[in-house]
Amino acid sequence: METPTHCTLCPRRCGADRTRTHGLCGGGGMVKIARAALHFWEEPCISGTQGSGTVFFSGCPLQCCYCQNHGISAGNFGREISTRRLADIFLELQEQGAHNINLVTAGHYLPWVCEALDMARPGLHIPVVYNTSGYETPEAVAALRGYVDIWLADVKYRSPELSAEYSNAPDYFEAARTAVKAMIAQAGPPVLDGQGLMRSGVILRHLALPGAAADTRAVLRFMAKELPPGSFLTSLMSQYTPFYKAKEHKALGRRISTYEYRKAVDYAVELGLTEGFMQEKSSAKEEYTPAFNLEGV
């Protein structure tokens, strides 16, 4: 594995020499993680009864102003570890009974992650979940062929104005649209086992934001009209909470209302997006955000 000297791992393609400095994502020359533990608050087909073996990577290319994990995404909290240690963590999580290995925001450490998965592969027998904001390059998705079984991807915005304001990424949707289509082509339709656990496929998440009903409808139309029926599961989430810098943006200073979320669910059903998950409004609680305390690192 070679550390990028002109980094283009994410759509920002900032060109950082990561042997000498950090990219816009906060990533440097070694993989950095903030937490590795069983996690029980993903979709039921991911968390199951024993938990998802979740590894939270420090830093993030997107750094949304409302990020619930801003301590690691923007604050870059974590510890640098070797790829050998990362491989051992994967195996330790499997030994703890994890249903899968869940890589949270790992794209800016792609070469390190692939190397660690190669090291762990002889003993790793559970699916690998790639948990992403959706802001990925086509090259990254292609590089993960053979490594990722389940793509757990956000489609955050359709509007370039919203993605520019909230994530400083006016190109978000065009990047996510291309990436999501590549993920579906690579993974094939969802496959679940007899216990209802996902073995392969794609889950597309959308977090409904306050005051953004029109954009939520546009995202749902994209899923329903541009993607093959039956090729993914939908996860429409209501858990938005005003974290980090959200209150600097007038519309984001509150949680979404029950009415707003109910209208989003009704529209998803109208479009035929009925395979998947609709979150309970009670999920918008801060206790669902894990403590980042280097557990398992």
Automatic annotation (TrEMBL):
InterPro entries, from UniProt? Aldolase_TIM, MJ0674-like, Pyrv-formate_lyase-activ_prd, rSAM, rSAM_sf
What cofactor does this chain's UniProt record say it requires? Answer: [4Fe-4S] cluster
Answer whether the UniProt record assigns the keyword Iron to this protein.
yes
Residues that hold [4Fe-4S] cluster according to the record: C60, C64, C67
- What Pfam families does its record include? Radical_SAM (PF04055)
Q: How is the cofactor bound?
A: Binds 1 [4Fe-4S] cluster. The cluster is coordinated with 3 cysteines and an exchangeable S-adenosyl-L-methionine.
Q: What is this protein called?
A: Fe-S protein
